[in-house]
């Protein structure tokens, strides 16, 4: 599947099957959650200069980003300003993708924490790339 700029997607973790969810409670926390087809689980992707991508929440209009250092364990949150990401097919399974912070000193990507724990509410963080499926994501047009 190719990802198209301007389209809205639901984004599922490659290991747990949970969906990238912006908290309906605080409007800031990003976690893996069961699919409830809410707008807080839908992201509009836009590709900008240099091929980088932004993820904008359909529910809030805010962007998927980080509010902290680019390092292992930094949680993803919603932010006011566009945050740039790179999206590449996984080396082992081209049906899923990895989402990286461009220009990081090491390959740092989005990671469903606790090795891809499927429990609803599991936090999504940054982590250095390793072969875990909990760092892969399936994009489904909403």
From TrEMBL:
<dbReference type="Pfam" id="PF14200">
    <property type="entry name" value="RicinB_lectin_2"/>
</dbReference>
<protein>
    <submittedName>
        <fullName>Carbohydrate-binding module family 13 protein</fullName>
    </submittedName>
</protein>
<dbReference type="InterPro" id="IPR000772">
    <property type="entry name" value="Ricin_B_lectin"/>
</dbReference>
<feature type="domain" description="Ricin B lectin">
    <location>
        <begin position="39"/>
        <end position="127"/>
    </location>
</feature>
<dbReference type="InterPro" id="IPR035992">
    <property type="entry name" value="Ricin_B-like_lectins"/>
</dbReference>
């Amino acid at each position: 599947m190719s990802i198209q700029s301007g389209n809205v997607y639901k984004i599922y973790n490659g290991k747990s099957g949970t969906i990238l969810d912006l908290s309906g409670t605080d409007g800031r926390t990003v976690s893996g959650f069961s699919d409830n087809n809410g707008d807080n689980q839908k992201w509009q992707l836009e590709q900008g200069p240099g091929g980088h991508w932004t993820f904008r929440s359909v529910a809030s209009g805010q962007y998927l980003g980080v509010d902290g250092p680019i390092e292992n364990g930094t949680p993803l949150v919603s932010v006011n300003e566009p945050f740039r990401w790179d999206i590449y097919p996984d080396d082992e399974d081209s049906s899923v993708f990895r989402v990286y912070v461009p220009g990081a000193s090491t390959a740092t990507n989005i990671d469903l924490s606790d090795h891809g724990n499927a429990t609803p509410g599991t936090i999504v963080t940054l982590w250095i790339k390793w072969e875990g499926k909990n760092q892969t994501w399936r994009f489904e047009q909403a």
